[in-house]
Amino acid sequence: MMPYRILYLDSVDSTNAHLLEKPEKERVGLVVCAREQTAGKGMASNVWESKPGENLTFSMGADLSFMKAADQFLLSQAVPLGILDVLDAIIVGQTHGSAPTGMLTVKWPNDLLFENRKLCGILINSTIHGVDMGVSVIGIGLNVNQMQFKDWPTHPISMKMILGEEVELEPLLHQLVASVDQRIQLLRTAEGVAKIKEDYLSRLYRYHQWGLFETDEGTVKRYVDGIDEFGRLKVVNEDGKSRVYDVKEIKFL
User: Fold this and answer.
1) pTM of the predicted protein model
2) Which CATH code is given to the segment(s) 210-252?
3) 5: burial class by Cβ within 10 Å (0-12, 13-18, 19+)?
4) Which residues of the chain are under the pLDDT cut of 50?
């Protein structure tokens, strides 16, 4: 595991933005964790709602220079799996005690759901040098102890809502950083990459299931058939025709 140092801030606009302001070399191995984010962001510029001191909002800088830029979606697969490794042990171990695959899933590309409700969001900003990756800033917002949310259309849920008790933030942060890094290190070998791909599909929300989506065709019914080599979602329509979608081209309903 790579050694990480943690910078705790009381308040910041965005932990991702704070880390991105630093020179690229200084981002490596640094975790910025804020008690409060005043302008936290999710995918597609969505605002990330988080009450001060009740959740984990942090960003970590990882050196991905061993990877090709064309393979960068592998990082979007590895990071949620690292978080799931921790959540599986805590949530599944304390609630159901059964296989976690149906409860904790990855909604493409990398949101984490608990029984179809949003538990964690991930936002990754990567530096590219020609055909190679550089340093990636991995932003993670995990709902831990918050009990009420304004943003009900996304049906958020927290660990406390699931477990019925508070979770200590600092030990959880250390667990998450170590686990995410462990998954990232698997990307250094062909065997590790194969495992990441396999594990990601095994936890993919609606994988090999029919569901409703919003696309350029309106509300449609599609069968989720996985992802392609660029990380685009592969779906099949009711006529058996396949199509791939990028992040902003399709929405889960």
Assistant:
1) 0.91
2) 2.30.30
3) exposed
4) 43-45, 98-101
